Amino acid sequence: MNYRRLFLIGVPYVWLLALFLVPFIIVLKISLSDIALSIPPYTPTLDLSEGWAGIKDFFSKLDFDNFLFLKTDPLYWKAYVSSLQIAIFSTAITLLVGYPIAYGMARAPEEWRATLMMMVILPFWTSFLIRVYSWMGILGKEGFLNSALMWLGIVDEPLTILNTNTAVYIGIVYTYLPFMILPIYAALDKLDISLLEAAEDLGCTRTSAFWLVTLPLSRPGIVAGSFLVFIPVIGEFVIPSLLGGSNTLMIGKILFEEFSSNRDWPVASAVAVLLLLIVVVPIVLFQRSQERQAEAQK
Amino acid sequence: MAKPSKTPVVFAPWEDETQKPIIQFKNVTKRFGNFTAIDNLSLDIFEREFFALLGPSGCGKTTIMRMLAGFEAVTEGTILLGGKDISPVPPNKRPVNMMFQSYALFPHLSVWDNIAFGLRRSSMPKDEIGARVDEMLRLTRMEKFAKRKPHQISGGQRQRVALARSLAKAPKLLLLDEPLGALDKKLRHDTQFELMDIQEKTGTTFVIVTHDQEEAMTVASRVAVMDHGKLIQVATPAAIYETPNCVYVADFIGDVNLIEGNSKKVGSDKYEVSWAEGQAALHGSCPREIADGTRVTYAIRPEKVAISADKPKDAANAIQGTVHDIAYLGNISTYHVMLPNGQVIKAQESNTRRLANRHFTWEDPVWLSFTDTAGVILTE
Lengths: 298, 380
Fold this sequence. Notes:
By secondary structure, chain A is an all-alpha fold. Chain A has 14 helices and two strands; from the N terminus they run H-E-E-H-H-H-H-H-H-H-H-H-H-H-H-H. In chain A, helix 9 crosses helix 10 and helix 11 packs antiparallel against helix 14 (about 265-295). Chain B is an alpha+beta fold. Chain B has two domains: about 15-95 and about 170-245, P-loop containing nucleotide triphosphate hydrolases (Rossmann fold), CATH 3.40.50; about 255-380, CATH 2.40.50.140.
């Protein structure tokens, strides 16, 4: 093994180790600690000056109490369930909205495609926070949407959209739409038009050719897009806290409240560790499907 | 050339006036914007024919095929299939199947499912579908690969699956778009004979599009040579080769020597072509009447030109020149002989002897000779 190669592989590994694994171990450690009125606000802390006995003492004080506590309060599992629910629904909505857009882009005349692609990516040029705030301006009681609806005479009273789950869904679908569109577009763009002609030639109508050929062949894009939306949405914090109401229950929000309002770092860490475990499952599934996809293309 | 094996000793329905063509193009024109792809074309294709559309790329041959399949609508004129106008029939309702140049096999389906795809869209009962697919697999010798996906088989096997899939629905007409273009030369030769074999077994009318003249000559019962959206000549491969109707066809099919000159009538269908100062006129025949003094082209195939050291005594045509170049192809040699006026005439000889015993070498003075029926006189 030459050093050059070792170095090349080493850099990302050291990076991941320092910025992901080490912080995760720290969070895991805090989740096994107890709350304390001190700085830092948990106990025990590792004191190496006492030598071996100190380390033994340190480990003996770690326990799973915080995880057991999460079981006793229904707030936590309700938040997990609600997060999963919101993630699943918003992924489904994003797919339903994103697929036709990606399809339209892939079927658009060649010279238009770059422009359309640009329009999908354009929102990323503005801060994510500003875009979510602007939705507050649109969806509020006196926002653009209600003013427009009232002016058109469609409604008499302003609709309550902001600070409800509806606003959260709107925000999530809006924010994550490009992550759904791009992989589906990539899959559809590769699709050979002669396959559709062959399907028609063999007796398919346009519609059945879509279900039998286009849809199965864009599956890798659908899977990739769905995971790219689903995984970050489970832990989403900004959108539910800005657009959601007091009854919008999401795990990211709970996490934030435990950390900052309650200053209960150990419980917050336990929530975070559990969230990670929940997210790891779809990530592993995603990796598997990507590998299978890569193998099929060999 | 496809063997016309079935009952009439010579398979030539196009010469039989009682035969009804299966496909009729009647003054068909197809335009894409300002570009005229097909220009007022009329054509009859008969049942059980293996019909080849031959021409350079962009000549409109693929457009003809796509109009038959239903992917392009005609701008003017009508296409009749079995006597009925097919323009209002969408591609999925036409009794026509197509084998695509790229094969267009569905990558997510197995070989078996690819072949069954068309049958499943029809009203055929399930158990019959299975039997039909197995039959197609046997016909194309792909039984062992039924469970494989298209990316797990070779190019030649994919070609056979594509053929099986397009034949599965027993179409009245099978369209083949450059079916062998992606195969290497040797495999292409084998597959040409396989195609003819399958065509004979199934009795389907085949229309093949190709730019490979050798392929068209091998497989087809009739060849249509196209250029710029027009049919230049439609005839059997032998007729196209031996009696091309114009310089374009003579030049496009095989190798040919073209000598320009002025014609003079000397017999009932005999003509003289004077082509160079101080040279004897060439003797040839033409079934059409040509006015004296018309500028014509005398076309003669290299293999019909004999080469010798001494002037042959009783040859109708003899020209002297020097060996300019020799192309040794193994089985044959092509001698490029330069005439006194600078023109180069190709003469082909079979290499019946070993290379070391070759008669001629570079710069040798030689005589070229050919009979008066070997060449054709072309006016266009």
